Amino acid sequence: MITKLRAAAAQWTVVVPVVSFLVLALTWHKELPGWVVAVVACFLVAAVLSAVHHAEVIAHWSGEPFGSLVLAVAVTVIEVALIVTLMADGGEKSATLARDTVFAAVMITCNGILGLSILVAAVKYRTAVFNAEGTGAALACIATLATLSLVLPTFTTSSPGPQFSTTQLTFAATASLVVYGLFVATQTVRHRDYFLPVTPEGRVLAEEEHASPPTLRAAGVSLLLLAVALVSVVGLAKGVSPTIEKAVDDAGLPHAVVGVVIAMMVLLPETIAALRSAIRNRVQTSLNLALGSALASIGLTIPAVAIASSWLSGPLVLGLGPAHMVLLALTIVLLTLTVIPRRATPLQGAVHLAVLAGYVVLALNP
Question: Is the predicted pLDDT of residue 257 greater than 50, yes or no?
């Protein structure tokens, strides 16, 4: 019976990405009635669940931290394509879309995914244990890139408003790529052990215990299906985005809410994968996904929109407002206090979730 269920699950995760991609092809750049949007949303959720499955297969084959890196980078690359596409279609109305989406991704990953993972693991195992060296390195990179890319534009004077001049934008884009590249090299080559899960006693888990890894062929198929599923996720998210924008406008909410909703949809695969790792007491894997996604979102989006700004007609506003800068500073301080002890209780997880709740409230009612 168990074998049949596993076979059915395997077939489901193969069929869903393909069908979701076909739905994307049939609905791309078309006006969708309400019932079609509902169907598209269902396939969007199914594609997210399928993507999580294939990401875990790849992670099991390659081992940590490569598995979480593959998922974080793959999602972010397609997220960047979505942002640039929406900016090209939106004109001046989308001038702040890149900033809003990147900042939303930082807040959701660093407070939402991280907070939920710590809370779940700490409630189940009393304390959530992780590796402070790897987590601290990711935090340092996030703090640096977020400040250079999202805070400095508010205080520069070369261009009017919270915008970079061409020289400043070139520097921010180059710094983002260099720092992110160095982080990936540190995570995967020089100090890979800093990003591996640890036991409550501090012993590093170099590989999953009591489980044989999938074959190279199975991992290759999962990699292909992961790419198809993620393209479907982001493409279908773009398909429902006009409905989201209309709903936001009809409700009289700020346009920044669109960026929050897009970030939430795109980050669903990482959220589910991180929670499943936390349930298995692999908190470091959850933190790799959360902080790695935040870092990839900044490190890849800023260079992409910098290049796109050369042919996009509208302005590119990157600087955060005062309230968001306060939330960013609070997030960095809380992350530092969470990382230093190498272990966390449900209290730390709840505090991070409280900051995320504050961000959502301010997004809805600035």
Answer: yes
Work out the average pLDDT over 207-226.
Answer: 74
Report which of 324, 278, 295 is spatially closest to residue 114, judged by C-alpha positions: 278
On the 0-12 / 13-18 / 19+ scale of CB atoms within 10 A, 167 is: exposed
Q: Which residues are bridge partners to 344 per DSSP?
A: 128
Residue carrying structure tokens 């509902």: 38
Q: Alpha helix locations (H) across the chain?
A: 2-27, 34-62, 66-90, 97-107, 114-125, 132-146, 166-185, 216-250, 256-266, 268-279, 283-308, 322-339, 346-364
Q: Which of 343, 218, 193 is nearest to 281 (CA)?
A: 343
Q: Are 99 and 263 in contact (CB under 8 A)?
A: no
- Which of these, 130, 151, 180, 153, lies nearest to 295 by C-alpha position? 180
Q: Which two tokens stand for residue 245?
A: 């924008």
AA identity, residue 126 = R
**Rounded to the nearest 5°, which phi and psi values hold at 355?**
-65, -40
Please tell me the distance from the alpha carbon of residue 302 to that of residue 304, in angstroms, as a whole number. 5
Q: Minimal CA–CA distance to 58: which of 227, 294, 252, 209?
A: 227
Residues 6+ apart with CB under 8 A from 252: none
CB 225, CB 13: distance < 8 Å: yes
Q: What is the pLDDT of residues 112-144, one digit of tens each?
A: 999 999 999 999 998 999 988 889 999 999 999
Neighbours of 330 (CB within 10 A): 15
Q: Give the number of other Cβ atoms within 10 Å of residue 204's Cβ.
A: 13
Average pLDDT over residues 14-35: 83
